[in-house]
Specification:
Oligomer: single chain
CATH class of the largest domain: Alpha Beta
Distance between the termini: 33 Å
CATH topology of the largest domain: Chorismate lyase
Strand content: 25-35%
Number of helices: 7
Number of domains: 2
Shape: elongated
Strand order of the largest sheet: 4-5-6-9-8-7
Length: 254
């Protein structure tokens, strides 16, 4: 067979530089160390700053580098392993060290979410915001949309908003017998509010996990969780459960 068009394409300069930089990170820099500025790095490796910037962005996407407010670009620590499955979701809100409730308000859900929940356009639902903490680090921010029909026993005298209200909604959800769920994962960009809570810059790459929870074959809640792409690597096991594996262990084992 002849050479295809793709086979004849040369490796981009930034991609080769990414490999060289990756080796330099392993040999010349420690975890948490701040990299020299772009001008000095470009001079060190004899490349244009635009090429350097592309390579750095790719290394950030792969979790080797982190851009931190007021600090600069630092060498990232090994990725944190976390499980993402129904058993670990902690509906009850009691004693769950992973997901920490931050706020709960009544708001109109985005059109796509409203359609999934089966509520009318403009109808308000409970919106619970939670942060996922692993090893003391915020790795995910979640918006959980819950229609009033899913928590009919929620007391009207409970707190109108805040963490207490969030825990009340979660306790009522815990009473439901979930009979299924479906989940999708896509690459996205951090919004301003998520970026602030996850210590990322707005627009940084994130993994968006959308989960629809079913009870009696009806959508009981929809979760939109934003995970740090530089911290987390998502894989599907044989059971269909979604979990985040430790990439550093995989590199050492290979």
């Amino acid at each position: 067979m002849g050479t295809t068009q793709l086979e004849s394409v040369q490796e981009p300069k930034y991609w080769h530089l990414k490999t060289v930089l990756s080796e330099a990170l392993d040999s010349d820099f420690a975890v948490g160390e701040v990299l020299p500025n772009e001008r000095d790095l470009a001079a060190r490796f004899g490349v244009a700053r635009a090429t350097l910037r592309q390579a750095l962005e790719q290394l950030e996407l792969e979790g080797r580098l982190q851009r931190r407010r007021g600090v600069g670009t630092t060498v990232a620590p090994p990725r944190v392993g976390v499980a993402v499955a129904t058993a670990q979701h902690g509906w009850s809100g009691d004693g769950d060290e992973a997901w920490q409730p931050v706020e709960c308000t009544m708001a109109v859900a985005p059109a796509v979410v409203a359609a999934e929940l089966g509520v009318a356009a403009g109808e308000t639902v409970h919106v619970v915001r939670r942060i996922r903490i692993t090893h003391g680090q915020a790795v995910a921010a979640e918006l959980l949309y819950v229609p009033a029909s899913s928590v009919p026993e929620l007391s009207g005298i409970e707190a109108a908003s805040g963490p207490a209200r969030a825990r009340g909604v979660l306790r009522e959800l815990h009473r439901l017998d979930l009979d299924g769920q479906d989940r999708s994962v896509e690459l996205g960009s951090a919004r301003a509010d998520d970026a602030k809570e996850l210590d990322r810059l707005p627009g940084a790459p994130v993994l968006v996990v959308t989960t629809r929870y079913l009870a009696a074959k009806v959508t009981a809640a929809v979760s939109v969780a934003t995970y740090r792409a530089d911290t987390c690597r998502l894989t599907f096991g044989d059971s269909g459960a979604l979990e985040i594996s430790h990439a550093e262990q995989e590199r050492k084992a290979s």
